[in-house]
Structures are given as structure tokens and as C-alpha cells.
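Appendix B. Extra example for self-study. Work through it before the problem class; the solution is given directly after the inputs so you can check yourself.
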Amino acid sequence: MEILRVVNLKKYFPILAGVFNRVVGWVRAVDNISFSVDERTTFAIAGESGCGKTTLAKTIVGIYEPTGGSIYFRGIDITRLKGKKAFEYRRRISIVFQDPISSLNPRKRIIDIVTAPLIIHKVKNVDKAEMATKMLELVGLDETFLYRYPHELSGGQRQRVAIARALILNPELVVLDEPTSALDVSVQAKILQLLKELQEKFKLTYILITHDLSVIKYMADKVAVMYAGKFVELASKDELFNNPLHPYTKALLASIPVITSEEKKYVSKFMTKLPGGEPPRLSNPPPGCRFHPRCPYAINGICNKVEPKLQEISKNHFVACHLYQKLIID
Amino acid sequence: MTLLRIKDLCVHYITVDGVAKVLNEVNLDVNEGESIALVGESGCGKTTVLRTILGILPENARIVKGKIIFKGVNILSLSREEFYKLKGSEFAYIPQEPITALNLFYTIGDQFTDVLLLKGTTKINLLKYLKLKRELYPKLGPEVIKYLKIVKIPEPERVVKSYPFQLSGGMLQRVLIAMAIAKKPSLLLADEPTTALDVITQKEILDLLKSLKRELGISMMYVTHNLGVAKEVSDRIVVMYGGEVIEIASTEELLEQPLHPYTKGLIGAIPKLTITELKPIEGGVIDYYNPPPGCRFHPRCPLATEICKLKRPSLIEVSKGHLIACHRIKG
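Solution. C-alpha cells for the complete assembly:
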């Protein structure tokens, strides 16, 4: 069952200049993105910093208003909802932020942080302490944490509190924005296990945003690779890891610093020599395919002129690359 | 030949809550032309080791015990002037966050020539500095460009005139590496220089460091929490836990046949691309104000027995070049 469908979603930020704050350009952080997420699965979005993945997450949750496009949650376009109705939907979608130090208010106690959503959504007839204790227990903390402040907790414990807060309203969809990138590996392993257990227990759907492909390998069912505001590849996890098609996906896989010799053998299959360069500025992306200045296979006259569309190459495997579109024509 | 030897180094931090006994008898060697990786989780004391070598510990730190012997001289017993002179010519440092390491108000070229002009000086008269700079600036320009070319910066002439905020993170890190090697150091100390970068850029920087090490024969001490990165750059890995060195071995051997329970746990906790299984390490962070007696890892160790709680294991060589500090594992 489909829980979320995003259609042609756009989020542009204006660049202002001059005394009168004239709009001189746009930062196209999310540019025409479409995908759907099935119930009780994990949809992962991979990409480098500055590719627009966090903007996409915040737009889905409703922190940003989209510039264009629609977000259908259980068949209802939530971008068209206003006022009270929109508010109702907010409680069904929640988010865990990247950095638990800045996402928890340092002046509030853990009990107040965890139960804040209850107050915002005016949930009545609940015992705050009892509810908070229950939530903390779920994430592996005990009631001794209730009256402490965030600075007294370690990074892993803080992230557990953030997860408890995200789950207190019993949401259906949880957006995880780099939930472990600020944590050490041994702590990361525990948080990832916890997230998986909670998904099983509460029948949750996750949208996982991360730059770490090995985390995706552990967590995800479906993966999208994002580059400069657009999806370049979309496939099931197994398909993407066994048969990556887009040159950027291959470059990402080949760049991971791996440990074991099996992993080394695996990533060396995708070894591509990139000509160098950096991700483009989203205010001024290159014409045609946005990856063409860094792509070793770029075809002059096509890749730098025509923008490739996300097309289904094989069953449920979508790629936006002229190399494969040519194959279809042949 | 041993270039740098750290012997029984103990460093404590004095805070309002008491004395944090962070480094506890750290012993390690760096040989000439070798690169070692100092690996451990955050708060394990790896940055403290690096800062002690560079003499940039915060004011509340106290070196309680130990020696740092560089080319036969104990650098901890040198006077400030002598130490700065040695540091200026022999050590180079690549920081973690390139954007905070550079001054945003001066161009790259300006800051680069300062490195070449002022290395090893403790104090300088402003007038003398300005005079020196005016005389030598045109002469040093081509030299700066030469170094920027070594680190493969495209359009170095443009980069010299740019301000730090005009360049990307990967480019700034290249500039800092160029500054580091411009001093022709014999030891390069890097503190997680790629954590702020993306994987593709990270790979480029690691490849650059590897080729520089090969071509210039610099020894390197690379601090990181990422074992994959350590595998890329190092010949030997030193694993730290709770302010102690617990295992030292060649990179290959440490990753394929780790012996210490913590090293094993650390490797098992990393998500891999080829297997979908995770084995986290139980237990939490160490309390430096009251560190556990005996082996500092024993509260989290699956193999711990009575002796681990009583006696601190010393670092012993179990096979050639493979050292561990553990009562339970004997090679």
C-alpha cells in the first residue's frame, strides 16, 4: 500500500540583492522530484552535502512550503490543505533531525522535550510523566532521565530522546534526516538497530536521508540517489547495489573507504576515474545533465545540452542518463 | 629508524568537576617515512595526543608524566623558543575544519606567504614584518603557485587571489595541505582532515595524501575515527580506547585479524556494503573523572574476568609488530 506520493515537487529559494531585496535568482534545491513510498518500508535518499536532500525532507514534513508540485499522503494532497486540516496531518508525519545537540532545547528538561508535541497538538487527558516514561523506555532509556537536561546526556542518548519525541504522537511516517551522522560507530549501530525494532513494532514507514551508503545497505528497501536537486537513479536496494547504472552512483560507491577485502572487491567493480571538479552551485546549475562536467562518459553535444529524464530502464529501475536512453532507442 | 617516540605519556585536564585523567601511559612510535593512523571513537584521547605533540593543549591541561622524543630530543623539555623553532621546520598540521583554520579577511596568497615567511618565529616586530613582506612578496608568489600545483589545484593563479569563503571545502583542504608541505616538514600531523568533506572529495584528498607521502617521503600521523579512511592512508594502525593504546598492528593485519575485543567490536559495529548485519558494542562512554580500575575497557568487555578489574594490562608484542594490551588474549 502506498502511503506517500510526491509528484513534481519543487522548492526554490530566492536570492535577494540590493536595497529593495530584489530577487536576482533562484536556488533550485529540489527540482521536479517524483517518487512514492510504500507502507512499512524504508525509502532512502542518498546524496552529497548541498544536493538538496535535507530541503526535500523539510518540505515533506511541512517545514518549508513547496514552490510547486504535490505531496499526496494517503491519497490526499497535503500541500493544498490549509489551517486546521493541515495541522491534523502534521501529527501523522514526524521528523528526527541530524544533530541532537541543536535539535533539543538546552533550557528544557527531557520530560518537557519529549512531551512537547502533546502540548502543541493539544492532546488532553494524558499524564505527562507517565507518557514520557513510556516513550523513554521504548527507546532504551529509563525514568532517571526525565528531569535531566540535554547537556547531561551523551550523543547517543540525545538521539534516543529525539526519536522518542518523534514517536510520541504515534505517527505513520517518520523522516530520518541523517539520524546517525553525528554519532560514533558503536553508538550508530545501536541507534540503527533501535530504529529497525521500532519500525517493526509500530508499523512505521521511514524516509531515510543520508550520505552513508553502508547505512542505506543496512536500513533501506528502496533507494534514490540525488545530485544537485534532482534524482539521478531510483531502484530497489538490491538492484541498486548489485547493478548501479548512473556514473554518479558508481562513483559514490567506488569512493567509500571500505574495510574488509570482500568490500574492496565489491567497490573496485565500480571504479571510475572522475575528471575532478565539484558539485555545481544550485543557483546556477550547468545546462543539460547536471553531472556532465564531472562525468567521464559525457557525450559532447548531448549531455551538455539536453536534460536527461528519469526513465525506467528495467523493471522498477529508473535512471536519468543519456547513456542508457540511447540503449533504448537502439 | 624511529622518528618520534611517545613514552608513558599521561595528560590530565583540570576542570570544575575535578581532574579528568584522559591519557594514561600512552606509548607509540612513528618510524621515518611511515604513516600511522590513530583510530578511536570521540573522546578516546586521540586529539589530545596530537595536541600534546604540537604543544597546543588547552590551558587546563597538565602533562603529568612522559616523554615525547623527536629525533633524539625530548620536546617536552625544550624552552618555548627552541620548541617553536623545531615545530616550525619539522612539524606540519592539517586541521579538521579548513574554513575555521584560515582567516576570512585575507587572501589565500597572503596567508600562504605568511607561512613561508614566519615559520618557526615566536615574536616579530610589526614594522620588520611589513618590510620583509614587501621585499619578499613578489619573490614568494611563484613559490606559492608551485606548491598549489603540487596539490593539484586547478587555476592556482586565481586561487591565490581568492578569499577562503570563495573556495569549496575540498579546495580549502588542498590549500592547507599545500601550506603544510611548503614547510618541508618531516612529520605531518593530520586531525580528521576529511570529516567535513563528501565521499568523492574525501577519496581525492586521501589519494593526494598518499601520493605526497610516497613522493616526498614524509612521515604522517593521521587521526581518524573511520577505519576505512585509516586503511586508505596508513601503514600501521594504533587503536585507542579511553585514553589508552590498546592495539597496534600493521593496517592489513589489524583489519583482517584484530585481537583486542574492542577492536573486534569496533569493526563489527561498522555497517558494511557486503553484509547486512550489525554487532554493536554494549555499554557507554568512559567517565574520565573516575576511570574504571584495571583495564579501562573491562565494563564493556565480553571476556572480562576478575584480573581485568584489578590489574591494568600492559602493551605486549604477541607476534611480530602486533601489540595488544589485554589479559585474556595471548596472541
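Self-check: The first strand of chain A starts at residue 2 and ends at 17. If your reasoning did not lead you there, revisit section 3.
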